[in-house]
Amino acid sequence: MPFKKPAPKPGAAINEVVLGTGENAVKLGGESVLPFYGFDAEIANTTKIGIEVADVEFEDAVPGIAVLYAGATNAAERVVRAAGVPGVDFVCLRFESADPSGADTSAEDCAAVAKSAFDALAGAKPLVILGSKNNEKDAQIFDKIAAALQGGNVLFVSAKEENYKTVAASAGLAYGQKISPESAVDINLAKQLNVLITQMGVDAKNLVMNVGSAAAGYGFEYVISTIDRIKGAAMSQNDATLSMPIFTPISTETWAVKESTASEADMPDWGSVEDRGVSMEIQTAVAVIASGSNAVMLRHPASIAAVSKLVNALA
Amino acid sequence: MALKGLDIFKLIPKTHSNCKECGFPTCMAFSMKVAQGGAEITKCPYVEADVLEKIAESTAPPMKSLAVKLGADEGKIGGETVLFRHEKTFVSKTLYAFTLNASDSDEAIDAAIKQNVSVDYTRIGERMYAEFAHVSSPDGTNLTPLAVKAAALGRGVIVSTRNYDAAKSAVAAIADSKPILNGADKDNFEQFSALATEHGILLGVNAPNLEEMYELVEKLEKLGNKNLVLTVDTGNIKTAYEMVVQIRRTALMGGDRVFGYPTIVNVAGLTGGDPALQSALASLFTVKYGSILLLDKMDYATALPLYGLRQNLFTDPQKPMRQEVGIYPMNKGAENDPCFVTVDFALTYFVVSAELERSGVPLNLLICDAGGYSVLTSWAAGKFSASSIAKFVTEEVESKIKSRTLVLPGKVAVLKGELEAKLPDWKILVGPNEAVALVKYARELVGA
């Protein structure tokens, strides 16, 4: 008996969402099969890679990251450097300094920084904006930034249970940007947020889910299973309330764990901090991509190179 | 193909119709249960031996579970029943091998061994190391001495060659180690299969694509050999991924047992020596269905994320991972430094210990037995209570720690009063609700 390939019926397609404008716009999603299952059906768009830039300089950056931004004096310059890293599809600007328990940069100042970065990019790569993880403050800065970048088709990460109304009303409805509902590894919450936000009038095709992230080894099974289940529901059960593409900002997680931060003096057996951090970032990224994340956020140029190499080899 | 309940019913002798000796009310009910895997066919005392075999085979798991010898230990590969862990659980964790090439100089090989075996540590109760040494010599040159060297490393051995004479000599030299013989292909499979069978070892089957692999497995099964591992060694990432995924899917979705075997993925043959790409591929084939990965090398940069990933992925979704109960000094915490108590749910431990470490404040983290659940869950289940904390503190902590300051997780602030009554010598404080606030809390506590 010769080998008969399993031929599962392709599922319903994931929504295709466009970030940015013009010839450098990036498309996320659109697939109807699992990641790199090109043997089942053609895959519309490859997995996309974003590079993380903060509005302030990274603390204790490893050499590969420090070198990339050496001499850059402001966020706009850093964003331009980041956009030039090979393998990068879009740039993620994270407003760390907006945190009220930190520098508490005002929404107006954040908007000015975002505008300068957007102008400096000049459409070379789409822009994604991340907040400070303070729900109230993020709603404020997203409002001002979304207004300043109107027409840029920018993705705002994230709209959470606590602030989705404000974020969806301003960034989503008033300024027509893309928004990212965030649910911490909870498929029911993911679904609920998508429903609530679309009920407010935001087009489902303007949503990119952030379903939670963790570093490999840190409760990461929840991330994998959440993505597995969401893709299963969207594709095989045709659940339109979960068929948004998924963006997983992993670098803020992976560069915070012991494996990526413990010094060589403290952990002499472990070897180079940079090698460990890069490997943690690569492995975490590949695992979420293999489960179905349509885009990831990474920090180190070497991680971006490796993940991009793998994605291209599998496409 | 799997038998349905009705098919099994037809095979059961009707001479003792509905005798109930199997514990089920009717033969039909019993047959249905057997088909679903809920009962063993052997419970029926009247089934003939040949029928028994037929039914046992058809109701056996779709993917073989095979034992592998790992030095003094034993491991297992395969036996998976689902494609996604949330559907039930993955059962056999991916195992890793580092590669020793016979073409390298003795010095290079010794250096490689030294480096690879240095990665050996414990993470949440599990030993993390490369379970196999993979010795490779495609043409057979110098294979036996290298295999002997590898067999002395106290782990499993995989011998890769296409040369029968070399394979024969190497396998005989380390027969007690029960190596996996990786090298059967369409030209040599008869000899290789006989050699593997003679030594009672697993045979790695090599073919460049799915069709030829299928054909070769059928031929080997016809020779009576079902102790097989399917080796994906294509030199091309895309083909390798398709083969690994399709082999697993064919067995589990299609119920086709020709592909119901574990896989070996030669990752080393795909990396081109790039360690970053090795990290990427190791993660990919751990998440997607590789049973044994042959890596260039195992170093800490590869291992730390990889073993964490594997440990997470292969946890049973119904059984949480647990951190060992005990006292964990943070930032060189000593006996006079304050104690922070929390539960033994591994995720809680990781998050809390990371934040406490970040605070830079010397202290002691106490991990209490709470059944492996999170703070609120274990509290609700009565497994994390004033009594259980007090018992742990009096029995395990008071003899070792002189400080009498104990910080409770904010979410169980309600335990404060009762705990003060049970531990009158202690100053009981209530910490923050969220781990992220611990840095600030700990620093303020010691006035830093």
Note the main attributes of this structure.
heterodimer; A: 315 residues; alpha/beta; TIM Barrel; 7-stranded parallel sheet; two-stranded antiparallel sheet; 11 helices; 40% helix; 12% strand; globular; B: 448 residues; 3-methyladenine DNA Glycosylase II, Chain A, domain 3; Rossmann fold; 3 domains; 8-stranded parallel beta barrel; 17 helices; 17 strands
Please trace the helix and strand order of chain A, writing H or E for each element. Answer: EEEHHEHEHEHEHHEHHHEH
Structural class of chain B: alpha/beta
Helix content of chain B: 25-40%
Summed up, the domain count of chain B is: 3
Quote the beta fraction of chain A.
5-15%
Low-confidence stretches of chain A: none
- Domain count of chain A, please report it: 1
Number of strands of chain B: 17
**Mean pLDDT over all positions of chain B:** 92
Distance from N terminus to C terminus of chain A (CA atoms, Å) equals: 31 Å
Strand content of chain B: 15-25%
Structural category of chain A is alpha/beta
The CATH superfamily of chain A is known as Dihydropteroate synthase-like
Report the principal-axis shape of chain A: globular
**Topology-level CATH name of chain A:** TIM Barrel
Structure description:
- The complex is a heterodimer of chains A (315) and B (448).
- In chain A, helix 4 links the parallel strand 5 and strand 6.
- By secondary structure, chain A is α/β, with parallel strands linked by helices.
- Chain A is globular, with a radius of gyration of 19 Å.
- In chain A, helix 10 packs parallel to helix 11.
- The model of chain A has no long low-confidence stretch (mean pLDDT 95).
- Chain A has one domain: Dihydropteroate synthase-like (TIM Barrel), CATH 3.20.20.
- Chain A has eleven helices and nine strands.
- Chain B is an alpha/beta fold and 448 residues long.
- Chain B folds into three domains: 55 residues, Orthogonal Bundle (3-methyladenine DNA Glycosylase II, Chain A, domain 3), CATH 1.10.15; 249 residues, TIM Barrel; 120 residues, Rossmann fold (3-Layer(aba) Sandwich).
- An eight-stranded parallel barrel of chain B has the order 3-6-7-8-9-10-11-12, surrounded by seven helices.
- In chain B, strand 16, helix 16 and strand 17 form a beta-alpha-beta unit.
- In chain B, helix 1 packs across helix 2 and helix 6 runs parallel beside helix 7.
- Chain B starts with a helix and ends with a helix.
- The model of chain B has no long low-confidence stretch (mean pLDDT 92).
- The interface between A and B is large, with 52 and 57 residues.
